[in-house]
Amino acid sequence: MARDSPSLDQILSSFAYKPSETTTTTTTTKKKKKRSVGGGDDDDAPPPPMKRRRRRPRPPSSPPDASPPIVLYKKEHSHGTKRRKMTTTKKQKRNPKNPKNHPIPNLSGDRDGVDDDHDGDDDEDVDRDVKKRRRRSKQRSQLSAAEKMSEAYRRVAAEEAWEPPASCHSLLQERHSFDPWRVLIICMLLNITTGEQVRRVLPGLFLLCPDAETTTKVPAEEIEKVIQSLGLQRKRARMIKQFSQEYLSSDWTHVTQLHGIGKYAADAYAIFCVGKPEEVVPQDHKLIDYWKFVCGKDGSKECAAEQN
Hints:
Blueprint: H1 8-15, H2 21-38, E1 71-75, E2 83-87, H3 120-139, H4 145-148, H5 172-175, H6 180-189, H7 195-208, H8 212-217, H9 220-226, H10 233-248, H11 263-274, H12 285-294, H13 298-307
Antiparallel strand pairs: 1-2
Helix pairs in contact: 6-10, 6-11, 9-10, 12-13
């Protein structure tokens, strides 16, 4: 008996996919594994122990009466090139006028806040410092506005200049007192130099610049070459030219109004040109010697003895 041929649906169903038992078991095991990761029997196991960092022992706190505080150094940058000094005590506010917080002596008469139990040596040191400051202030004293307009510093023409008496001191200003411009130039050159240095330079300078009018026409470079041995030749050359230009003008009435003229040059002008040495008090030691000689003080006796 012949069999019936299979239909088309039966043929297609035979080729359809059917999961086997092995595949189902693998999927179930995977699901079980996933469940076990989320939370299962493994959750009961204790976590691994954490490593604890050992803390550095803190420095002992200093007692309130301890004089030297504990000093620590902390790196300010990662590379460690700079360090910042830190103390356990509170930082004191620094005074801009006294950055190192040194004890300031009480120079006034007020004794508030000063202990009476102290030695007398401290007072002597303070008095000595005050005397030094007063001595320095006298040396650095300048002419006031009223002193600059004194009659001793008034303008004097070359033909009206006073002829000072010759002395044993032989100052450079004595030899050139016939021209007030030269006297002032010599005083300007004697600043921060010695008389011997200026004495070597004057012949060449006055040969190149015999008067103020000629000086204004001479180039500054030529003046610099002549006075180069004195130092600061550029500054001095510019000062000489500007002073000579103002000296020729008719705007000034007192020598203190000119460029580059200070107390030393003004006093020399009053002594050697105006002829009023008694109205000034010089501070330069060489000028003081001649001032004493002219005013008839102790220096005149010494010069008279040397001349005899």
